[in-house]
């Protein structure tokens, strides 16, 4: 890992620690694998790792995700991260991430991610991943 990821997260500050917890390092490594224009859900990341769950992944991203592409690890319903919607939206538009335009009745008229088209399976169109036929977390874990 070439970046110092203990400097603070996307939504908070990192706890005082000399080293990043092993699980956090693993979560951030998966976030780094997600190609531009694609996303994985918190649950996808946990499944990929074969450890933890969506809440644990979300906690890692909140505490340590500032140096990672945090906007590529998302909620399963495609809603943008509360409090960071506009920053995330800028990233999504820059990367060409598929979006679903908001209905006129939607609060704030913010789009959602088009999860059917944006969701990365952990294999196709990216940098590496398990040889598992397209399921995040399926098959043998070649990384860590």
Would you kindly provide a written description of the structure presented here, covering whatever features stand out?
With 144 residues, this protein is mainly alpha-helical. Helix content is 32%, strand content 6%. The chain contains 5 helices and 4 strands, in the order H-E-H-H-E-H-E-E-H. The protein has helices at residues 22-33, 42-49, 54-64, 85-95, 115-118, and strands at residues 40-41, 73-74, 99-100, 112-113. The radius of gyration is 15 Å and the shape is globular. The model is unreliable at 6-12 and 127-144 (pLDDT under 50).
Question: What's the SSE blueprint?
Answer:
Layout: H1 22-33, E1 40-41, H2 42-49, H3 54-64, E2 73-74, H4 85-95, E3 99-100, E4 112-113, H5 115-118
Parallel strand pairs: 1-2
Antiparallel strand pairs: 3-4
Helix pairs in contact: 1-2, 1-3, 2-3
Quick overview of this protein structure:
With 144 residues, the chain is mostly helical.
Features:
mainly alpha, two-stranded antiparallel ribbon, disordered C terminus
Query: Roughly what percent helix?
Result: 25-40%
Q: Name the shape in a single word.
A: globular
Count of β-strands: 4
Mean pLDDT: 80
Radius of gyration, whole Å: 15 Å
The description of the largest β-sheet is: 2 strands, parallel
């Amino acid at each position: 890992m070439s970046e110092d990821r203990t400097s603070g997260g996307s939504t908070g500050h990192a706890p005082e620690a000399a080293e990043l917890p092993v699980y956090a390092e693993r979560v951030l490594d998966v976030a780094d694998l997600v190609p531009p224009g694609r996303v994985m859900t918190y649950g996808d990341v946990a499944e990929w790792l074969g450890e933890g769950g969506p809440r644990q992944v979300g906690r890692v991203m909140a505490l340590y995700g500032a140096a990672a592409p945090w906007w590529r690890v998302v909620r399963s319903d495609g809603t943008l991260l509360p409090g960071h919607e506009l920053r995330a939206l800028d990233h999504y538009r820059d990367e060409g991430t598929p979006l679903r335009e908001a209905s006129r009745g939607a609060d704030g008229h913010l789009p959602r991610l088009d999860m059917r088209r944006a969701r990365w399976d952990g294999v196709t169109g990216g940098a590496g991943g398990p040889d598992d036929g397209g399921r995040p977390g399926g098959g043998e874990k070649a990384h860590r």
